[in-house]
Amino acid sequence: MKRGSKGALAAGGVILLVILVMLVGYYAGFSSARSAVRIGYVGHEGWGSWSASYAQLDGTMKKIIHPDGDSLHISVRTESGSLSIEVKDREGNCLLDEENIGTGELKLDVPGQVEVRIEADAHKGGFDIR
Prior knowledge:
Oligomer: single chain
Helix content: 10-25%
Structural class: alpha+beta
Distance between the termini: 56 Å
Shape: globular
């Protein structure tokens, strides 16, 4: 009986460790979160950048970005549908909240690490954030 208890305890410890590593990775910006349907999606994610092009994007995605320097360059290509982008700093202050963005570019001054949230409604096109 004792051996079974130790095995269960070790398995529980491993599961807890995996969950902890995943949480630390997410908050450090090593991953992104999404609840979106992506069709023809080709994306690239890095420490300080996030870009994608797609035939259709529908839903919400977010990622922590660590920009090089004190600005964030956002480029959007819209062929159809709508795309909204929200950028928040570490404290949760909203730095940008743009809805239904058409094709274009903008530069945003940022204080360092930011969280970028993209919400798409049948959007065809792409984005590049760096």
